[in-house]
Amino acid sequence: MNFKIRESDMPDHYWRSLHYYNLYRLVIGGVFSVSFVLFGATLSFGEESPLLFFLTSIFYVAICVVSIITISLRWPGFKYQLAFQVVSDIVLIVALMHASGGEKSGLGLLLVASLAAGSLISRGKMALFFAAFATIVVLLEQLHRVLFLNDSSSDFLHSGLLSISFFATAWLARTLAKYATASEDLAKQRGIDLANLAQVNQLVIQDMQDGVLVVDENGIIRQSNTQAEKMLGVVIHKQRDLDLADYSPPLAAYFRHWCEDHEAVFEPLRIQANGKQIKVRFVPLGGEKTIGALIFLENVSIMQAQAQQIKLAALGRLTANIAHEIRNPLSAIGHATQLLQEEEGMDKTQSRMLQIIRDNTFRLDRMVQDVLQLNRRDRAEIEQIPAENFLRSFVEDFCQVEKIPSAAISLEIDSDQTICFDRSHLNQVLWNLCRNAWRHCQKQDASIRLCVTEAHIENIIQLDVIDDGAGVSVEMQPQLFEPFSTTENQGTGLGLYIAKEICEANGASLDYIEVAPGGQFRICCKGGTC
Fold first, then answer.
1. What whole-number distance in Å separates Cα of residue 508 and Cα of residue 224?
2. Phi, psi values for residue 288, rounded to 5°
3. Which H or E element spans position 221?
4. What's the whole-model pTM score?
5. Exposed, middle or buried: residue 53 (CB in 10 Å: 0-12, 13-18, 19+)?
6. How far apart are CA 422 and CA 429, in angstroms?
């Protein structure tokens, strides 16, 4: 009775099998008891010893009732309860068979069912033991009948054939149990492999830089990763049966178009929540019969930033080395121009030319200063900044320095928000954005709005700079954050690029969001505890 599985670790299905086997025994004992009470001597059962037959049937039912309790308590151990049930079956059925006239009553066939059940439940470990015990008990009963009840010795042949059937049943049940055990082990191993594979896939998907969405043929989101939520701006994994159309109508339109034409190529998708441009790619699921799609979302702004880094690598190294060599001649040119402007007797043309020289000297000097700031963009000392206090102080300083009416800038702050940012960096970024906004707005009360709100994604704060001007043209938007890209004659084209670099150095992002009317720049950064 040595089992492969420890008693304390027996799976539930072993106990369920034992429970159902005990219910079968209870039915057998109950049928014999009720039949004897209702029909009595009219049945052939118990014809030689009615009292023994009735008492054995009642005892059979009692043992089964007690077994129901012990099985529910799972005490004593599984192997002991199984052995007790099969052995008691053999003894009690042979007693019923003896009270009904021996092997000729046909009750011995019930032993075949009990042996098969016991062998299967024990997974073949005790099959031969049960068969041998049943054979011994049957042969002893037949021997008793021959010696004391004057039965013919030729009846041993019937008992022998019945005993052979016991071993045949035990062997067959043992063989089937071995196959069942092997299949069970294989299924268990396959389940472990599938669980491990699913976990690995989940880890890989969550660690991907691209956003991933899994949708079925009806457009219901079944799975997503963190990057997809960050790109699209809404928490998905906490919601069930989320329709792609309710979540992102433009993306749902792309999906419907792709379902009609798998070869379709799509333009980058602009997300209104954060202003990001997302490249969308669909991969069918289900082979020939499409049952859904795997949607890959790639942040185009990251690729643009990488291209910008490559584009500026050579320029940055060159500028860092020769910046002081450029500034010295610029200082000399500016000083000489200033001295010439102080000379008397110059006509308007000469004065105009000198002013052009001086203005462009200042412009080149600002450009060199802006480029030098790129080397200091990663020196961020991030701290927790109370949004309301900081912005009120910033607006006061900005209006005073830039000589702007304080009523031109309004603050809209959603409750008490805390921003994780380098204080000087945030001041520099907001100064650049507000100066651009003032240059393009209508210069009225509340022409510039500073809005602080909590994003859909947990622990992310959105800081918007909104003006009531004409906004940025569609043609200009792709080059908006590229270096040296400007529509102003006096601008360097580095302001927005440096602002975006500073935001990224602080773990934040800066994007332009197209609104009508006006322009809107959004800073997404961490909030709460840094």
1. 23
2. -65, -40
3. strand 220-224
4. 0.46
5. buried
6. 11
Task: Give the tens place of pLDDT for each residue, 5-50.
Answer: 455 457 888 899 999 999 999 999 999 999 888 887 577 788 888 9
- Convert the pLDDT of each residue in 292-304 to its tens digit: 888 888 887 666 6
CB 277 within 8 A of CB 300: yes
CA nearest to 464, candidates 302, 273, 305:
273
Bond from prior residue into 386 cis (ω within 30 degrees of 0): no
3-state DSSP assignment of residue 482: coil
DSSP 63-102: HHHHHHHHHHHT-S-HHHHHHHHHHHHHHHHHHHHHHTTG
337 vs 357: CA distance, rounded Å: 7
Q: Are 463 and 419 in contact (CB under 8 A)?
A: yes
Which positions ≥6 away from 384 have C-beta within 8 Å? 418, 419, 420, 529, 530
Residue 481, number of CB atoms within 10 A of its CB: 20
93-109 burial, b if ≥16 CB within 10 A, otherwise e?
A: bbbbbbbbbbbebebbe
